[in-house]
Design goal:
Jann4075-like_sf; mainly alpha; Recoverin, domain 1; about 110 residues; DUF2853 family protein; DUF2853
Length: about 110
């Protein structure tokens, strides 16, 4: 099993256990591959739910640039609801899991 496959399995477990979501493994794999080498770096593989600068990066680089959404208050609300679903007290919020949940939230699976 490759390192990427191990990480995808870890993300799937987080989706099931912490978010109560049955993951679409094909989509989760595509989202993970889309993140490139950042998934192997301890700092860039996670998202700080309390860091406004980090959340702005998720909004601008992922939701607006990657998914092609228009800037609006809905984006902040969606990020907030995904962080809430993942668990604010959960220290390790994996970027791949957050992005997967956002793709599902906006029904943008077609991007992948």
């Amino acid at each position: 099993m490759s390192k990427r496959d191990e990480l995808i399995a870890k993300y799937a477990a987080d989706l099931k256990d912490k978010c109560g979501v049955k993951p679409d493994m094909d989509l989760l794999t595509k989202v993970t591959i889309g993140l490139g080498p950042s998934i192997y770096n301890a700092d860039s593989s996670t998202v700080s739910g309390s860091d406004d600068k980090e959340l702005a990066t998720v909004k601008n680089n992922f939701l607006i640039k990657k998914l092609g959404l228009k800037a609006s208050a809905d984006l902040d609300g969606a990020i907030d609801s995904v962080i809430e679903k993942y668990g604010r007290s959960n220290r390790n919020k994996y970027r791949a899991v957050i992005y997967y949940l956002l793709v599902k939230h906006f029904k943008k699976e077609s991007v992948y």
